[in-house]
Design brief:
Strand content: 25-35%
Distance between the termini: 24 Å
Number of domains: 2
Order of helices and strands: EHEEHEHEEEEEEHEHEHEEEEEEEH
Structural class: alpha/beta
CATH topology of the largest domain: FAD/NAD(P)-binding domain
Bound molecules: flavin-adenine dinucleotide
Number of strands: 19
Largest sheet: 7 strands, mixed
Amino acid sequence: MEHCKLLIIGAGAAGMSAAHSAWEHGIRDILLVDSRACPGGILPQCSHRGFGKALFGEEKTGPEYAAFLSSQLTESGVPFLPETDVLSVSPDRTALLSSRGGLRETGFEHLILATGCRERSIGELPVCGSRPAGIFTAGQIQEQLNLRQRRPSGRILILGSGDLGLIMAGQLHDAGCDVVAVVEQSGRCGGLSRNYHRFLEPTGIPLMLRTTVTEVCGQGRLTGVKLRQLDTGKTINLDCNILITAVGLVPDQALIRRLGRPEWLHLAGNCHHVHELVDSAVQEARSVGAAIA
Ligand SMILES: Cc1cc2nc3c(=O)[nH]c(=O)nc-3n(C[C@H](O)[C@H](O)[C@H](O)COP(=O)(O)OP(=O)(O)OC[C@H]3O[C@@H](n4cnc5c(N)ncnc54)[C@H](O)[C@@H]3O)c2cc1C
């Protein structure tokens, strides 16, 4: 069985920064793995500016930020294992890795979990109806639009006015898509005000506050939704073909659920808690890497 001093799961902003910091502080026997082909995590699909004000003094795009961290990593020489899923982590300090070459076990002294977060899906919401085609999370649409240049067609409704909902409303509008509204159950916009002013305000897309989706309609394909105005109890039928959910991010700690908190386990980035700004995830990860060294 192969063995390393420090295994890092996830090569997003946090995993790359933790790896670079640990290397700078003298740890040489590091292995960084990610299920994707390239490092960067969520960053390559975030084509908007808004990343790195604290680190660079100016706002970069997600891909530019990822390229900077990736070049740091290459310079340091930390080995990166792409297209490798970590399937499980055991209390005896071994991880089961799966790649095209098959399964293999890797032993380690310390583990940094940097697996990011996952999006809450429609299945986690109290929404009636079947699950027809045409319902996506905001991250899925962002990946299709920015990495595969695939534009959704038809009338689009976005549920949730957090940063991801606002960014996608603006990007879809700029790509020529028909976004009919952003719906938000609370009484105020959920995202950063800078994102509201940058992405939603200029588009004229209505933000429907104190409103939520209670039912999805359509057999096989989505044809519309039922909205409820929470203050009046009034129901509105709205025709739409695409429903995008942007209803929250949850730290992804699935791999360590049964492990407790042994002293060799460290968390960095969005799998620890969701960071609104990448600079904060990077700062946290750098401290984790340094502390282990
Ligand atoms: C849509 C969106 C917009 C944002 N906009 C901004 C912005 O404008 N400005 C800003 O500063 N910040 C922004 N952020 C926040 C910032 O981008 C994130 O906080 C940061 O990039 C998170 O990095 P991370 O490394 O923790 O997670 P991620 O980037 O999600 O990386 C996690 C990595 O772990 C890998 N992984 C997960 N599980 C496994 C496994 N079992 N085996 C192998 N690999 C695994 C994944 O493939 C992924 O590459 C935004 C975030 C999002 C989602």
